[in-house]
Design a protein that fits this description.
Elements: H1 5-30, E1 31-39, E2 53-57, E3 62-65, E4 71-78, E5 80-88, E6 91-93, E7 96-100, E8 106-110, E9 121-122, E10 126-133, H2 145-149, H3 152-171, H4 175-184, H5 194-202, H6 217-225, E11 230-238, H7 244-251, E12 267-273, E13 277-284, E14 303-308, H8 316-327, H9 330-333, E15 339-345, E16 351-357
Parallel strand pairs: 1-10, 11-13, 11-14, 14-15
Antiparallel strand pairs: 1-4, 2-3, 2-5, 5-7, 6-10, 7-8, 8-9, 12-13, 15-16
């Protein structure tokens, strides 16, 4: 059977059109559209905001355009999950996640990068509202009075001022509170000048002519308000192994005493208190190489205790010479107030008054 060539050509063309039509219909049935509205501020209605905006799915995988009425449609979108963004040069928009099922069901929800599993559904068709204008430049900071008031330096000055003003008013009519404040007051830490001590130790260093009393902040504040005990600086000196540290150890409370006494190197600070006084005792080393450090503490002392070991008769003359050198020192002889000098025998702890100077 002979079929003419024109007839065969028509049959072939018809078969090709049939196959292509089935593919197009299958593709069209599996693709969907994403639609919604873009809402701009009322102040931008007269501008070309629609022509300057685009709708991006997955950062440009599918692109749509915004109409003059604010609506948009993105066609030929297969099923899956997409991030819908509005790209505009003047405004910022919150992105939205859209999930499309194989049957064409749409579900929109907020996009949360920090909590991707959190679901907050949104209505469909989409409604995307401008969040804020786009800022291309950082706003210049302006000076405010609160910046100065909240600065660290002002706060550091304000807190002591409030303490000095408020505490006296709070404790004026409450004796029990005053007693608690006295118990909480801290002792003054009157530490020596290290540079002066080293200069005096090696010799040739400059000597200060005026007394420089150093007082801790809280201790001075307590004394200023009349809440703390009176601070007394006591310098305890004497030859080595004369019993200075042993005497001070007995003046401590039982729970702070030490069982074994070791020789003092340089000096050691000992604190003890009575009902009305708080004592800072400087236990000075008595070895020959440390005796030139004693004079560094004379100026700030309210009392000086010279300890003599009554059993050490071989060095009694040495102790006598050191005591006379103490009494002739310029920081002792030039004191305007009264200074108490006591000598204590290290074996029997007898207190003998040597001199009271008016």
């Amino acid at each position: 059977m002979n079929i003419p060539i024109p007839v065969l050509s028509c049959i072939l063309i018809a078969l090709i059109e049939l196959v292509v039509g089935e593919d197009v219909s299958t593709t069209a049935a599996s693709n969907f559209r994403v639609e919604g509205d873009v809402i701009f501020p009322a102040s931008s209605k007269g501008e070309r905001w629609a022509s300057n905006s685009r709708v991006l799915l997955n950062h440009g995988q599918h692109i749509g355009f915004v109409k003059e009425d604010g609506s948009f449609v993105v066609d030929n979108v297969p099923s899956g999950s997409y991030v819908v963004q509005i790209e505009n040069v003047d405004f910022l928009f919150e992105p939205i996640r859209v999930d499309i099922t194989g049957k064409g069901k749409m579900r929109a929800r907020k996009l949360s990068i920090l909590q991707p599993n959190a679901v907050s559904q949104l209505p469909y068709p989409l409604k995307l509202t401008a969040r804020e204008p786009t800022r291309y430049f950082r706003k210049r900071e302006e000076w405010r009075i609160t910046d100065m008031l909240l600065s660290p330096m002002v706060l550091m000055l304000l807190l002591p001022f409030l303490v000095m003003v408020i505490i006296p008013k709070l404790t004026a009519n409450d004796p029990q509170l005053q007693k608690e404040m006295e118990q909480m007051s801290l002792p003054k830490m009157d530490m020596p000048d290290v540079s002066e001590m080293m200069a005096n130790y090696f010799g040739g260093g400059p000597k200060k002519t005026a007394s420089n009393k150093k007082m801790g902040f809280f201790s001075s504040l307590s004394q200023l308000l009349g809440l703390g005990k009176k601070q007394v600086n006591v310098v305890v000196i004497g030859l080595d192994n004369s019993g200075k540290t042993t005497i001070l150890n007995h003046l401590k409370t039982p729970d702070t005493r030490v069982a074994q006494i070791v020789p003092t190197v340089g000096y050691a600070m000992t604190n003890f208190a009575t009902e009305n006084f708080s004592f800072n005792a400087f236990d000075m080393a008595g070895a020959g190489k440390y005796r030139n450090l004693w004079e560094s503490y004379y100026a700030s002392a309210q009392a000086i205790v010279f300890v003599v070991d009554s059993a050490d008769r071989l060095r009694m003359s040495v102790a006598r010479d050191e005591l006379w050198m103490l009494l002739d020192h310029k920081d002792i002889s030039s004191k305007s107030g009264s200074t108490l000098f006591e000598a204590i025998t290290g074996q029997s702890f007898r207190l003998v008054r040597l001199m009271g100077k008016d």
